[in-house]
Amino acid sequence: MPQPDHVIRLALPDDQELGEDLEKYFQVCEEKIGFVPNVLRAYTMKPNKLRSFSRHYNEIMLAESGLSKLEREMIAVVVSSANHCYYCLVAHGQAVRQLSGDAQLGEMLAMNYRAADLEPRQRRMLDFAWKLTTAPIDVDEADRQGLRDVGFSDADIFDIADTVGFYNYTNRVAHATEMMPNPDYHGRNR
């Protein structure tokens, strides 16, 4: 079956001047993971937005937090599952496989996170992420207290909410542009 050969369903500039900083950023991606993720290629349409997006992603996913990198990737997958975001399910499902060492966990989270054998802390975190994505108006103090009850601080709760919000945003951009994941993600960490 032929695979899609597009990054997004919008015309990206052929010879966009990205600037030295972004060219270097793309080189680092090539060196660290072997390719430039299509989400970054999509943002070449607007280099300043690419800079902002990259800074925001790095702050949410890599900065100091009471959430582990794996927990943040798990949130990305569960939010993307609720939103049926193909790009993020593939890309962040691979990250979950890599960080957890579990070849099945990414798919379990994508299909039905409730089927996964999770620690109570992770289960409560993902229940909160699902609810904040699918019924945000219904999130209340009992939900926040439930997170506290399994050891999350208020700063952690903010980080969970910020991560959920970020992936709801990126899922919508991916849907609107029909963004496709890099084929490289599919076979990794199996």
Automatic annotation (TrEMBL):
It comes from the Bacteria. This is Uncharacterized peroxidase-related enzyme. Gene3D superfamilies: AhpD-like (1.20.5.810). Residues 52-99 form the Carboxymuconolactone decarboxylase-like domain. GO terms for molecular function: peroxiredoxin activity. It comes from Caenispirillum bisanense. The keyword Oxidoreductase applies. Keywords: Oxidoreductase, Peroxidase.
